[in-house]
Design a protein that fits this description.
With about 290 residues, the protein is of the alpha/beta class. Helices cover about 20% and strands about 30% of the residues.
Length: about 290
């Protein structure tokens, strides 16, 4: 790879002072934040993330997946879970405050050439990229996916019984994400915590149930997923078992998030052999079959 190609991402990352529009708290220490960042919003694609300065006294930024981006309003939405000093400070920010924001960063999900029945699988804080991708599929590609989401804390929205029939799923599994219902996109939820209407088990087990029972032709299905590493490893195995193409967005701790520190590398199989790739700028999206999970 040439030095120019190696640094190609540097010309696409913007630095913008984003204004906090809204901060909404949800059960399980989850927060949805909306920022007005017109330049970044116009450049976003499903699967990218932004790197936020949580507050002036904290030098280390925090990476946040983009859940929605609207170029018309110049806004981006993020969902995150409070689990440390940085995210706690971020959750305390108020409308009107300004956050230094780098973005959009990373390689997005494939933006075209979709099979007729995309299967989107999101786990925990891996849900936001699936929301963004589902909206892209509906608006830009004319393809309606099935969206499956799993969480072991309460979902960051009030669930709704789905009005969209999904052959191949258990009849009792009816809990859905209201936003997806409003878009006419079928969604179902999974958890080990026996939430009403949810599949009792891992979200990948729900996906396997649908793949086995729906009767949908395998050549019509492809998988897109984001979530914790054990879930993505299970998605990789599921895609291999059903011989399906799959893209996964990896979650990894990041320092610089712009490819300089190489602190977020993952081993990937390439045509030239094994290689260490940076999740921040070579990903976060990779072909599932290429990732070497520990």
């Amino acid at each position: 790879m040439s030095a120019t190609a190696h640094r190609a991402h540097r010309g696409t990352i913007l630095l913008e002072d984003a204004t906090v529009v809204d901060v909404t708290s949800h059960p399980g220490d989850q927060v949805v934040m909306r920022l007005r960042a017109p330049e970044i919003a116009a450049a976003c694609q499903p699967g990218v993330f932004v790197h936020l300065r949580c507050e002036p006294s904290l030098q280390m930024r925090r990476p946040m997946s983009v859940m929605r981006a609207d170029a018309r309003t110049g806004t981006i939405d993020m969902l995150f879970k409070v689990h440390g000093i940085g995210t706690r400070a971020l959750a305390a920010r108020q409308p009107g405050e300004v956050l230094s924001t780098l973005g959009p960063i990373g390689k997005p999900f494939r933006l075209g050439g979709y099979r007729p029945r995309p299967l989107l699988i999101g786990g925990g804080v891996g849900i936001p990229p699936m929301v963004y991708l589902a909206e892209h599929l509906r608006r830009c590609a004319g393809v309606t996916p099935l969206v499956l989401m799993g969480s072991e804390v309460p979902f960051p929205f009030k669930t709704r019984p789905s009005q969209i029939l999904v052959p191949g799923l258990p009849a009792a599994v009816i809990a859905a994400m209201p936003l997806m219902e409003d878009w006419g996109i079928a969604s179902r939820l999974a958890s080990l915590n026996a939430y009403p209407g949810c599949f009792e088990g891992y979200v990948t087990a729900l996906a396997e149930h649908w793949l086995t029972q729906s009767g949908v032709a395998r050549e019509d299905v492809e998988i897109f997923a984001c979530g914790p590493t054990p879930m993505l490893k299970a998605v990789q195995a599921l895609a291999g078992r059903f011989d399906l193409p799959a893209q996964v967005s990896l979650e990894e701790y990041m320092a610089c998030a712009v490819g300089g520190c190489a602190g977020c590398t993952v081993r990937v199989e390439t045509p030239a052999g094994p290689a260490m790739k940076r999740v921040c700028v070579d990903g976060p999206v990779f072909e599932a079959a290429s990732v070497v999970f520990d």
